[in-house]
Amino acid sequence: MDLILYGAGKEGKNANDIINNFYQEKYDVQMFIDSNKEGEYCNKKNINVKDIESVNKNNTIIITIGDMYTVVDLYFLLRSKGFQKIYWFLGLTLNRTQDSDFLKDECWDMSQWGDCILPHMELHIVDKCNLKCKGCTHFSPLFESEEAKFDDVIRDVQKVSKIFSSVARLDILGGEPFLSKDLIKYVIEIRKIMLTASIDIFTNGLLIPSLPDDVLDCIRENNIFISITEYKPTHAMIDKIISRLTQFNVKYKIVPYDKRQIFNKPISISENSKYPNLCISNGCVTVANGTISRCPTLMYIDKFNEVFNTKLPNDGIMKLDECSSGYELLEKLKQEVPLCKHCIQCDMEWGVCGTDIKFEDFAVED
């Protein structure tokens, strides 16, 4: 089968290499589409890079760009041009066998996404975390034992599924999601509701080697992926983590370890901070407790205010029951809120909070 890759960047090259190394008997990359490149690409087999207008509409297109909002924009562009067979390359690591299939196992079929798509949704199933990173934009170290109520979370997922034709990518996280006693129930029920969504469990990975077999079986059987952020403690046991996932054929991806481990204090009490304004959670739409917000920092700022006796604004959190139009909600989620004036770039070395969690672990005064 002939394939066309949309995006001649790093992910496009990665997809092309995977096809050539593992699937060349069944698939062949004919060309790239890229608005920023032209000519030929990839050294071993020079492939033409062309404009979208020169591509036959019957071809199968693989979007090889990571940003979910760009992926959704390209999906609509391709549909408007008459393309029907549209896939998104996930960039996963998996245990490839003779039975593996590139489109089925390494890509996501976008054909059922519809016309009103939420590009990215984050969902806490537990608020607490076993690592407690300083600067956490979800403020997870501030939560001690709170765990979401299963029925409430599933009700929120059902509401979102009625507002939008599809969620492109749904992240199950927290906190540390593997701390949830109901993880298997969540995986099964969320997949039942979100049939067309690419679903990831976001984790620091530390609990993976000790996960029960039935948890990993359930994740694989429901076509859920694991995204691991490789913090310093994760890096120290990454081989055990990978071995466990490989043993159960669970697909995963890793945000790789960086020895510098530069993190960020996300909040300033001042609207006119001496630090530059920076939004590091833009587009990470968060759903919790019957509400939806443009980012997790806004959704959980009340916890920060409660612990540190501050009054940072929480305007912009909307009730799902009051959202009748997905198109209107998408526009509202793009709008800045008062808290945006407090989001800053303040680099710091990665570390964990001590037993005495401090204001300066997350914020600056000015």
Structure description:
The longest helix has 14 residues, at 150-163. The strands form four sheets. This protein has an eight-stranded mixed beta sheet with strand order 12-11-10-9-8-15-16-17. The protein has helices at 10-22, 68-80, 102-106, 150-163, 183-193, 213-221, 232-236, 238-247, 296-299, 301-308, 326-334, and strands at residues 2-6, 28-33, 39-41, 47-50, 60-63, 86-89, 107-109, 117-124, 166-173, 198-203, 225-229, 252-255, 262-264, 267-268, 285-288, 291-293, 318-319, 347-349, 363-364. By secondary structure, the chain is of the alpha/beta class. It is 28% helix and 22% strand.
Number of helical stretches of at least 4 residues: 11
The sequence of SSEs as H and E is EHEEEEHEHEEHEHEHEHHEEEEEHHEHEE
Contiguous low-pLDDT stretches (5 residues minimum) are none
Ends: how far apart? 58 Å
Q: Label the structural class.
A: alpha/beta
Average pLDDT rating: 93
Strand content: 15-25%
The amount of helix comes to: 25-40%
Task: Record the SSE blueprint.
Layout: E1 2-6, H1 10-22, E2 28-33, E3 39-41, E4 47-50, E5 60-63, H2 68-80, E6 86-89, H3 102-106, E7 107-109, E8 117-124, H4 150-163, E9 166-173, H5 183-193, E10 198-203, H6 213-221, E11 225-229, H7 232-236, H8 238-247, E12 252-255, E13 262-264, E14 267-268, E15 285-288, E16 291-293, H9 296-299, H10 301-308, E17 318-319, H11 326-334, E18 347-349, E19 363-364
Parallel strand pairs: 1-2, 1-5, 2-4, 5-6, 8-9, 8-15, 9-10, 10-11, 11-12, 14-19
Antiparallel strand pairs: 3-4, 6-7, 13-18, 15-16, 16-17
